Amino acid sequence: MGKVLIANRGEIAVRIIRACHELGLETVAVYAKSDQDAMHVKMANQAICIGGNTSTESYLNKNNVLSAAIASGCDYIHPGYGFLSENADFVSMVEDCAITFVGPKSETITAMGDKANARKMAKQAGVPIIEGSDGDIESVDQAVEWAKKIGFPVIIKAVSGGGGRGMRICHHEQDVRQAFEKTQLEASASFGDSRLYMERYISSPRHIEIQVIADQQGHVVSLFERDCSLQRRHQKMVEEATSPKLSEITRKKLNAAAIKLTKNINYVNAGTLEFLVDDKENFYFIEMNTRIQVEHPVTEMITGVDLVKEQLLVAMGKPLSFKQLDLKVNGHAIECRILAENPKLDFRPSPGLIKNLSLPGGFGVRVDTHLYVGYQIPPYFDSMIAKLIVHGKTREEAIKKMQIALKEFAIEGIETNIEYLYVLMHNKNFIAGKYDTSFFERFRYLLTGEKA
Ligand code: MV4
Q1: Is 403 domain-assigned?
Q2: 325-335 b/e with 16+ CB inside 10 Å = b?
Q3: Which residues are known catalytic residues?
């Protein structure tokens, strides 16, 4: 027995509460005032209000979250994704209170949160990285030197960045001179760390990530890849497992590289290694996410592994319930992120009252959501309101199921991207698996019928 505080909201809090209850663990929800009617609050055994309306006042307030865990006598804190999930200071505070964080050690989060250091770790493990600066860059002149050494175009990135913020592409020396200090200021404001590093810029790569999980006994397994190339402004919209166009040899190499690095850093719990893959299938490690990710269900569908349950078991000190050789890829899975946004108004957020809801279903169809009829979506948080995940024997079957499921999905009261996703699922390039991270720059025009 044990008690878990879920330091999150929305669909992932619901997902985690279910896994806890399946394992016989008690649950404590925390919530912002604006979330008092939220699904996770209703589902948990206990719920504690931790502050005002906004994220900063609630889910990001380290002391309040930790106090709630202590006051309710929790043994574990599951952070979900976002919020405090990769905050090494918070995890260190949790460790000091002798509460078990469901995730890696705080030192691991610190080590991987420094993207220049993560590159160094990868290099040490023999995992390919993009040609770039060794560590951070100390001055504009040094940046220009590196750019000349690497060769243009280059990309300047924040050491504490990730997920696409605080980056700049430079084609010429004068771009570097113009961008460097601006990017430093942005990085300082966004991440409280002005340090920058540089890489050769790869145009139109595929974004492929490998899911790993490791137990406290030192076992590391790879749960294969997800293709997350379909992103709009660094916001993923569709993810699939496995990648539609990746040779078996590259797939094997990616898995081996991910396992190597995960072992080398003594990683524990679930993690994801992000790679960029170019048109010749050269692959390069870019960063590691030390949390459960939004898109984890596609991996669950093709492997049959409940990743959140395994996270909890690993945190309890249990060895993984399976070995690498027990795993094989079964069929194909696709996830569409359902957003409370209006694609016709440049994806403007559309919070409001859910007046009616009709969820899709059927064999191989899964919906992870916190929605219910009568629920008022608060305007303070991320606009993702559901994840629609389908599993088929083949990619073709999965696409067909997704098309049907999107047609069935009806939400009244707010605007969503469901129709947009429906059009996307009929796009011939998507169906052919011909897409990379630059897809939406062209797809932008498809809904309105304008030419690219
Ligand atoms: C890159 C790149 C090209 N070359 N790095 C964006 C998110 C961040 N995690 C890394 N990103 C990129 N890094 C080099 N050296 C292109 C991107 C990028 C991208 C990466 C993954 C998915 C979507 C993307 C969209 C634009 C740019």
Answers
A1: yes
A2: eebeeebbbbb
A3: 291
Co-location of 211 and 290 in the same domain: yes
Assess if residue 119 is contained within a domain: no
Pair 229, 190 in one domain: no
Q: Give distance in angstroms: CA of 261 to centre of ligand 1.
A: 20
Which residue owns the Cα nearest ligand 1 atom 8?
164
Looking at the domain assignment, is residue 302 inside a domain?
yes
- CATH code at 89? 3.40.50.20
Write the Ramachandran bin of 158: left for phi over 0, alpha for psi from -120 to 50, otherwise beta: beta
Q: Looking at the structure, tell me whether residues 135 and 83 fall in a common domain.
A: no
* Statement: residue 452 has pLDDT above 80: no
**Which of 230, 243, 437 for mutating ligand 1's site (highest number of atoms within 8 Å of CB)?**
437
pLDDT at 268: 98
Q: What is the pLDDT of residues 392-421, one digit of tens each?
A: 999 999 999 999 999 999 999 999 999 999
Residue nearest ligand 1's atom 20 by CA? 207
Q: Does ligand 1 lie within 6 Å of residue 272's CB atom?
A: no
**pLDDT tens for residues 269-318?**
999 999 999 999 999 999 999 999 999 999 999 999 999 999 999 999 99
Cα torsion angle, 116, 117, 118, 121, sign: positive
Give the CATH number for residue 164: 3.30.1490.20
Would the CB of 187 count as within 6 Å of ligand 1? Answer: no
284 near 128, Cβ under 8 Å? yes
The residue whose CA is least distant from atom 11 of ligand 1 is 164
| Mean pLDDT over the full length of the chain | 96
DSSP state of 312: H
8-12 average pLDDT score:
98
Q: Which atom of ligand 1 is nearest to the CA of 130?
A: 15
SS3 90: helix
Cut 0.85: pTM above it: yes
**Residues 84, 180: one domain?**
no
Residues 194 and 82 placed together within one structural domain of the fold: no
One-letter identity of residue 173? E
The finding on whether 153 has its CB within 6 A of some atom of ligand 1 is no
Residue whose Cα lies nearest atom 24 of ligand 1: it is 437
Q: Is residue 109 part of a domain?
A: no
Examine the domain organization and report whether 92 and 189 are in the same domain: no
Residue 90's domain comprises 3-102
Strands 235-241 and 269-277, how do they pair? unpaired
Q: How many residues does the chain have?
A: 452
- Give, for ligand 1, the residue of 202, 235, 237 to mutate: max count of ligand atoms closer than 8 Å to Cβ: 202
pLDDT in tens, 355-400: 999 999 999 999 999 999 999 999 999 999 999 999 999 999 999 9
